[in-house]
Design brief:
Layout (H helix, E strand, L loop, with lengths): L1 E3 L1 H7 L2 H14 L6 E2 L3 E4 L6 E8 L4 E8 L11 E8 L6 E6 L1 H19 L6 E5 L3 H11 L6 E5 L3 H13 L4 E3 L2 H7 L2 E4 L18 E4 L18 E5 L2 H7 L10 E3 H5 L12 E5 L4 H14 L4
Parallel strand pairs: 1-7, 8-9, 8-11, 9-10, 11-12, 12-15, 13-14, 13-15
Antiparallel strand pairs: 2-4, 3-4, 4-5, 5-6, 6-7
Protein name: Ornithine cyclodeaminase family protein
InterPro entries: NAD(P)-bd_dom_sf (IPR036291), ODC_Mu_crystall (IPR003462), ODC_N (IPR023401)
């Protein structure tokens, strides 16, 4: 069995690698040869600790990703979040690889956002508003900046100190960033990204201007919500995998909505934005094929078989 450590995968991963792998995974998710299974969310013994399992089977890749969150880990100087991807042999079911992927997971999640922006946002979109100032939000901004010429980033956060620190980090990376309110951020934005753990809408629907693209990245379990439902009738809705999105993703809050999987837009089976005034929304609930495809790319990069 092959094992890639966290140190190895952190050195191998990049926004470019993640983009390519996740784009291929989102296309694979629309194939009849791909099966994605219901997500298992479970609790750990520590208060607020949790772990999850996401699994999938494609023609060439079989396996699952486990993600964990142990909130007291910071007291021991170790990360609170952990991710490992396990790959099985499609022929025998034997475990062939375990890939430590905690940092990789941040790139993988942000890559789905970047793909959605690439295919759904207006080509002249240049102002990005991000809701959230946590670990994942940095990767979201970096992934979008890597594929679009962003002129301004407006950061909306709950905590002023954390928001100021986040803006300074972006500025030090050469990304023009500023602090803004939720209303200001929405009214100025061509692209809105929500990367929070919210359980209620972060902004009002009427603050979003025509032609805006929104990537909702935070909802991955029942009860989470970042967007106002009043926005849905005005928008074109897209997701990574519909049957998962309507159960644990942002679109669990829709009723009988027309939702298109982004893989169908990538392959031109469906259209993205029909005109420049369309509001487009992409829900990323995070699907197992993304993890399998990224892990496979990392194994190729590591030159192991």
């Amino acid at each position: 069995m092959i094992y890639l450590s966290e140190t190895q995968t952190a050195q191998l991963i990049s926004h470019e690698l993640a983009y390519v792998a996740v784009k291929e995974a989102l296309v694979a998710a629309t194939s009849s040869e791909t099966q994605l299974f219901p997500v298992v969310n479970a609790q750990g013994p520590q208060v607020d600790s949790m772990f999850s399992l996401k699994s999938a089977c494609t023609e060439n890749l079989v396996g699952w990703k486990t993600g964990s969150y142990w909130p007291d880990n910071h007291q021991h100087g170790i990360p609170c979040h952990g991710t490992t991807v396990f790959l099985l042999s499609p022929e025998t079911g034997e475990l062939v690889a375990a890939v430590a992927a905690s940092q990789v997971n941040a790139y993988r999640t942000a890559a789905a956002d970047a793909v959605a922006v690439d295919y759904l946002a207006r080509k002249d979109a240049s102002v990005l508003t991000v809701f959230g100032t946590g670990h994942q939000a940095q990767y979201e901004v970096s992934a979008i900046v890597a594929i679009r010429p962003i002129s301004r980033v407006i950061v909306v956060g709950r905590n002023k100190s954390n928001t100021d620190i986040f803006v300074e980090k972006l500025i030090k990376k050469g990304i023009p960033a500023e602090v803004g309110t939720a209303q200001y951020g929405c009214e100025q934005a061509d692209i809105i990204v929500t990367a929070t753990t919210a359980t209620a809408p972060l902004f009002q629907a009427d603050w979003v201007k025509p032609g805006t693209h929104i990537s909702a990245m935070g909802a991955d379990k029942v009860g989470k919500q970042e967007l106002p439902t009043e926005l849905y009738p005005r928008a074109r809705l897209f997701c990574d995998y519909e049957s998962q999105s309507v159960v644990i993703g942002e679109f669990q809050h829709t009723t009988n909505a027309s939702i298109t999987e982004i893989g169908k837009v990538i392959t031109s089976v469906a259209i993205g934005s029909a005109n420049t005034d369309d509001i487009t929304i992409f829900d990323s609930s995070g699907i197992a094929v993304q993890d399998l495809f990224v892990a496979a790319k990392l194994l190729e990069m590591a030159n192991v078989e």
